[in-house]
Amino acid sequence: MSFGKVLTLSSGTTIPQIGLGTWQSKPKEVEHAVETAVRNGYRHLDCAMIYENQDEVGAALKKVIPAVVKREELFITSKVWNSGHRPGEVEKELDETLKALGTDYVDLYLIHWPVAFVPGKGIYPPHPTKEGEVELDFEPSLVDTWKAMIALPKSKVKNVGVSNFTIEHIDALIAATGVVPVANQIEAHPLLPQDELVAYLNEKNIHITAYSPLGNNSIGLKKLTDEAVVQEIAEKLGATTAQVLVAWGVYRGYSVIPKSVQEERIISNFKQVALSEEDYKKITAIGHGRHLRFNIPYRYKPMWDIALFGEEAEAKATHKVKIV
Ligand SMILES: NC(=O)c1ccc[n+]([C@@H]2O[C@H](COP(=O)([O-])OP(=O)(O)OC[C@H]3O[C@@H](n4cnc5c(N)ncnc54)[C@H](OP(=O)(O)O)[C@@H]3O)[C@@H](O)[C@H]2O)c1
Description:
Blueprint: E1 6-8, E2 14-16, E3 20-21, H1 30-39, E4 44-46, H2 54-64, E5 75-80, H3 87-101, E6 108-111, H4 142-150, E7 160-163, H5 167-177, E8 183-187, H6 195-203, E9 207-211, H7 228-237, H8 241-251, E10 255-256, H9 263-270, H10 277-284, E11 306-307, E12 319-320
Parallel strand pairs: 3-4, 4-5, 5-6, 6-7, 7-8, 8-9, 9-10, 11-12
Antiparallel strand pairs: 1-2
Helix pairs in contact: 1-2, 2-3, 3-4, 4-5, 7-8
Bound molecules: NADP nicotinamide-adenine-dinucleotide phosphate.
């Protein structure tokens, strides 16, 4: 069985290039998905407190460790949620994650978003005055949370990084602490190539993991797997459209974490196909003159009234990130 290519993080740890995403994987689905994935060669699992399914991922891990793999053969990522940003909360939340997953450590622990929510009020605390909005917390800055992340015991987290962070955010973390995040997990696919951010992260040797590589269609728009050029290239290569989209991310040199709960897709998404330079360029051209970011928290329900990415859709947001 092939376990796929691995990449090396700045810490020297290796990370399998293709991982399994677990967001929106429902209870009763995710346990089977994780078990199927590991039995079919996946060694990289992407998890988070907010996915509210880490206990089921943990149930799957019990089935495959040690029957199929040793714990040290897996690369498990998890993320501190927005309500865990205050320095006193960070390790407490990590402990909850470790308990749910049933493991002593995670291989990579990320700050999920550069946004804090008031702690102790649940995952999505309601705003006291405005309906449908999350109550944001401006007590901790990103730097405060980063300091707590880098102080976490090595026995519990092998590497620490960030997710959804911009160049400005990362520059501030480095300026304040001298510690460069090992990874930044970002949305990246042909409609959101993030070339400037990718170049910056490569230059700083910060590993990139691309999320929503298939262009998660949960907001009801045309799926990337339905793009004519993706279908054409898939047909030519005798591959699936999802394999072609994963290959587009692989061509760019980072790790890619497609999510599926369907057995056949989990298996086929992991089988790599190689793109020629010509096909890579054709797929890249899908994004020329088009731009689409699927994950904009200002549009979430409940909404987060904060501008994160300088997107037009965030123009009416009234808050900015508290960086330092
Ligand atoms: N850091 C962050 O803020 C963040 C944000 C978003 C996502 N992520 C991570 O990245 C992972 C992947 O992103 P994502 O879940 O947003 O989107 P995605 O992986 O791009 O797309 C998932 C969607 O594609 C479908 N799909 C999977 N394989 C397919 C195939 N072979 N053909 C056609 N459709 C297919 C899935 O449905 P089925 O399950 O029914 O197959 C699901 O609807 C997440 O699960 C999560 O772990 C992180």
